[in-house]
Amino acid sequence: MNRVTESIASTAILVGLVFLFSWRSIDAANVSYDHRSLSIGNRRQLIISAAIHYPRSVPAMWPSLVQTAKEGGCNAIESYVFWNGHEPSPRKYYFGGRYNIVKFIKIVQQAGMHMILRIGPFVAAEWNYGGVPVWLHYVPGTVFRADNEPWKHYMESFTTYIVNLLKKEKLFAPQGGPIILSQVENEYGYYEKDYGEGGKRYAQWSASMAVSQNIGVPWMMCQQWDAPPTVISTCNGFYCDQFTPNTPDKPKIWTENWPGWFKTFGGRDPHRPAEDVAYSVARFFGKGGSVHNYYMYHGGTNFGRTSGGPFITTSYDYEAPIDEYGLPRLPKWGHLKDLHKAIMLSENLLINGEHQNFTLGHSLEADVYTDSSGTCAAFLSNLDDKNDKTVMFRNTSYHLPAWSVSILPDCKNEVFNTAKVTSKFSKVEMLPEDLRSSSGLKWEVFSEKPGIWGEADFVKNELVDHINTTKDTTDYLWYTTSITVSTNEEFLKKGSPPVLFIESKGHTLHVFINKEYLGTATGNGTHVPFKLKKSVALKAGENNIDLLSMTVGLSNAGSFYEWVGAGLTSVSIKGFNKGTLNLTNSKWSYKLGVQGVHLELFKPGDSGAVKWTVTTKPPKKQPLTWYKVVIDPPSGSEPVGLDMMSMGKGMAWLNGEEIGRYWPRIARKSTPNDECVKECDYRGKFMPDKCLTGCGEPSQRWYHVPRSWFKSSGNELVIFEEKGGDPMKITLSKRKVSVV
């Protein structure tokens, strides 16, 4: 072998040794830090972490997700703790199913990986209400994330409960567990000033409260520029190479590197190229970073009503390295795996060596790490976002593509360049299978009537706030009233219909006039309020107006976000002989929820609460309709998605498990100048609107149904369709990935 080949072979052996050492079993270890890195068991370590939120997948998926992250070169798993999932009512705790946090952390431990736990307990995360229980908003005197006793009492109480639970299970590193780092609060620095002096007091109190828990591992606060000396200030963003902690004794930690972005119903698909993600990571470690976390590494699914926003899709795929269904996304997963191997070759130098930065020309630089023996590692960067360049470094020429970093673990041989993708690519197909049953496919159908079912919950001469009324116990709130039309009205004679005007704070509305569906109006992920203007056919005599207001996930971030309302603010009809009829302060009757959810028609079996109609041809385009069908699981073992392209909007369940909201809403341009692209240019700084696709297509067509939810036969699929669709065209699609 020549010297280059010999060096590369040695490098490959070293990669194997580094990763073998990294995946050793984790024993009890003290965790400390200095300005360079965390020290675990008195040894400095680089941490490459993968965010996997336990309630966004199912327990049957957890081992393979963790293993796939490990195979991708990560040595830690990160997750938030989801307060509203664990404490759905005051002092009533839940840790079953997808919320079995102890089981999840033990799976991480069994894989020989570290755990970073962001207790918060506010999380944002595009999760309903930012993870805070809705009931807390209605505790008198409570202002979220501020210096007031109710908030601090419940926040500390929950944090202490979680900490004690994990201590009991011996899950912190000094106890022999995997947890090496924890977080209190979340991105509060963005909003602290809006809360005045109380904001600063609250931030300092949060840190003190966390440290007083005595968990034996460091605490951090992300995007908290005034973090006290007792906690580590950290960075979130698409790039954090220029970040500096707020005091010089703290390590450089990147808590959220966003390898993709979230999606909203009606929004287009954002894409972040693998080359740019790799560039950001290489720049971070080259500039002295030591703890890095991908948010998300596996995004997963917002099952049930857990999505926030509002308008966040049920899919939380995030274009992460592991896709929503648990499969590696190529080339992103593979390219980052290669990057992680290259970085870990220089681990010792990066956390112990002397760092120097050299300019190699315009937009060219080298970050070099050396030790006393002369061992050397280098990161060569081309910051030019348009032009490839050739650079001389230590008398050797290197070709650097635009917007790229080359890693030289021995200051000589390039083992990785962020713009040179050598990983395999994958072809993803959703292969449909018609719904089938070994006993013959039969549908059961139940149609609700628009408006009040049973008795009205209350009556008021005003329009009420939707969220304050439902307290998020349901998406649905009926506003109903009636008007009497005189036979003398001109529009009855001339055939020129009146016009209905409605204004709403959000999120979505279905309109029924005289029990007939008239139409839908909605906001979107960038502008939640909306207006409706629609011609309406009225008759002489009494006319019923039934308005079904809906939320699509509650706000999850922002100053005083818990006070953001929803629901109707004005209703009027123009075109009467006397002008406009203002109904805003008319007599309105209200009903929380829809009948089928109240009767729990989504639960397996027949409760006898309603009379289902059995048919082999269920009705099409029929609003407010429940469909139930018993099916066999699809063939094979591939992950499964429910194809709802033929349906309108609603919710779906399998065997009583909440698949979630479905809404194959077509993605539209925000402005006429918005464009969708065919290819993404990785060069230059990324923003969520830089590379968008999917114009004119459903923002979400397929809805993940975990394989573990299926029985061998007799599976009950239940669908509540709000506005009308064709259930005969629903299919179960298998996700097939072919490596190219």
From TrEMBL:
<protein>
    <recommendedName>
        <fullName>Beta-galactosidase</fullName>
        <ecNumber>3.2.1.23</ecNumber>
    </recommendedName>
</protein>
<dbReference type="GO" id="GO:0004565">
    <property type="term" value="F:beta-galactosidase activity"/>
</dbReference>
<keyword id="KW-0964">Secreted</keyword>
<keyword id="KW-0326">Glycosidase</keyword>
<feature type="domain" description="Beta-galactosidase beta-sandwich">
    <location>
        <begin position="365"/>
        <end position="421"/>
    </location>
</feature>
<keyword id="KW-0325">Glycoprotein</keyword>
<dbReference type="InterPro" id="IPR017853">
    <property type="entry name" value="GH"/>
</dbReference>
<dbReference type="InterPro" id="IPR041392">
    <property type="entry name" value="GHD"/>
</dbReference>
<dbReference type="GO" id="GO:0005975">
    <property type="term" value="P:carbohydrate metabolic process"/>
</dbReference>
<feature type="signal peptide">
    <location>
        <begin position="1"/>
        <end position="28"/>
    </location>
</feature>
<dbReference type="InterPro" id="IPR001944">
    <property type="entry name" value="Glycoside_Hdrlase_35"/>
</dbReference>
<keyword id="KW-0052">Apoplast</keyword>
<dbReference type="Pfam" id="PF21467">
    <property type="entry name" value="BetaGal_gal-bd"/>
</dbReference>
<dbReference type="InterPro" id="IPR031330">
    <property type="entry name" value="Gly_Hdrlase_35_cat"/>
</dbReference>
<dbReference type="InterPro" id="IPR048913">
    <property type="entry name" value="BetaGal_gal-bd"/>
</dbReference>
<keyword id="KW-0732">Signal</keyword>
<feature type="domain" description="Glycoside hydrolase 35 catalytic">
    <location>
        <begin position="38"/>
        <end position="342"/>
    </location>
</feature>
<feature type="domain" description="Beta-galactosidase galactose-binding">
    <location>
        <begin position="624"/>
        <end position="715"/>
    </location>
</feature>
<dbReference type="GO" id="GO:0048046">
    <property type="term" value="C:apoplast"/>
</dbReference>
<keyword id="KW-0378">Hydrolase</keyword>
<dbReference type="Pfam" id="PF01301">
    <property type="entry name" value="Glyco_hydro_35"/>
</dbReference>
<dbReference type="Pfam" id="PF17834">
    <property type="entry name" value="GHD"/>
</dbReference>
<dbReference type="InterPro" id="IPR019801">
    <property type="entry name" value="Glyco_hydro_35_CS"/>
</dbReference>
<dbReference type="InterPro" id="IPR008979">
    <property type="entry name" value="Galactose-bd-like_sf"/>
</dbReference>
<comment type="similarity">
    <text>Belongs to the glycosyl hydrolase 35 family.</text>
</comment>
